[in-house]
Amino acid sequence: MSSTYFSRCLATMGRAGTSLVAGALLLVGLPATAFSSDLVNLFMQGFAGTGEDRMETSFIVAGPGPTRVAAFAFTPTGVAGGLEDPRLVLVNVATGRVLGSNDNWPDSADADEIGRIIASTGIDINNRAAAVIIELSAGAYVALVDGADGGTGIVAAGVADLEDDHSGGGDSATGPCTGQEVELPLVNTGVIGGAKGKARVRTYADCGQDLRVEIEDVPVGDYGLRVAGQVVGTIKVVNTGFENAGQIEFDDEANDPHELPLTFDPSGLMELTQGSTVILSRDFPSLK
């Protein structure tokens, strides 16, 4: 994942900030305690207390090689009861060693890079946000978040891979294809009034592609995904403690445990179904 993708993740968290509630909530619907991948992609929001009640974002880097990541913590604008001055500490679980920490990101040795990422999000992330950029070998880690001034409150935190997902030329400036991304909302057919969803397709310079489809505000259960008339997968909707939501991801390199192989063209009519009934749909454009 490039720093551009990381900035989009931050922007997503900023837009979602007004719905923050006490108690950790995973934006990506993955287990908070262990996300195993060579490509870290974990985002949480919740309540950060003090001492043993610090918010913990735990993750696993599977390797095999080192992975350069950015860990961060900030309070989105407009959140009542937000943590005013978050502090972030990154710890190696096996050794207990503190690998990095930060209070205010402008004080970081990587402030220039962090500043560029924040600027590209287009959202208000102030100088009291915390961020650490570091290269991690395979292993288990935890990012601890509390208030630098002893304060408590709601905060957003996460870890993202800064390296390219497609080693064959993910830089949009090189390769036979144009690196681009399209994310569009799916249209509610009226069967389930509050149902919402969206689909995102990314194309890389090496012509690789990935697809993510999300659905929320529907009853718990299984929903089929159909693309251009072909059934390609099933989304399991669960209750996250905040909402009913589910997602499915495909990648033509599919090197993460949560990804399925992308063996079909993601363009054309995309439909989320319950049995034979279409709940959400969208005619998705081709990016190649």
What is this structure, in a nutshell?
The chain is mostly beta strands. The protein is 9% helix and 45% strand.
Q: Which term fits the overall shape?
A: globular
Question: What's the number of structural domains?
Answer: 2
> What's the CATH topology name of the largest domain?
Jelly Rolls
Structural class: mainly beta
Number of helices: 2
Roughly what percent helix? under 10%
Main sheet, how many strands, which sense, barrel?
Answer: 10 strands, mixed
CATH architectural group of the largest domain: Sandwich
Oligomer class: single chain
What proportion of the residues form beta strands (DSSP E)? over 45%
- The CATH C-level class name of the largest domain: Mainly Beta
End-to-end separation: 20 Å
Rg on CA atoms, Å: 19 Å
The string of secondary-structure elements, in order, is: HEEEEEEEHEEEEEEEEEEEEE
Any low-confidence stretches, pLDDT <50, length ≥5? 1-9, 11-40, 164-173
Give the strand tally: 20
**If you average the pLDDT, what whole number results?**
77
Topology:
Layout lengths: L2 H14 L8 E2 L9 E2 L3 E8 L6 E7 L5 E8 L11 E7 L5 E5 L8 H11 L8 E7 L2 E9 L5 E9 L18 E6 L1 E2 L7 E8 L5 E8 L4 E7 L2 E10 L4 E8 L7 E3 L6 E7 L2 E8 L4
Parallel strand pairs: 2-4, 17-18
Antiparallel strand pairs: 1-3, 3-10, 4-9, 5-8, 5-10, 6-7, 6-9, 11-13, 12-20, 13-14, 14-17, 15-16, 15-19, 16-17, 19-20
Helix pairs in contact: 1-2
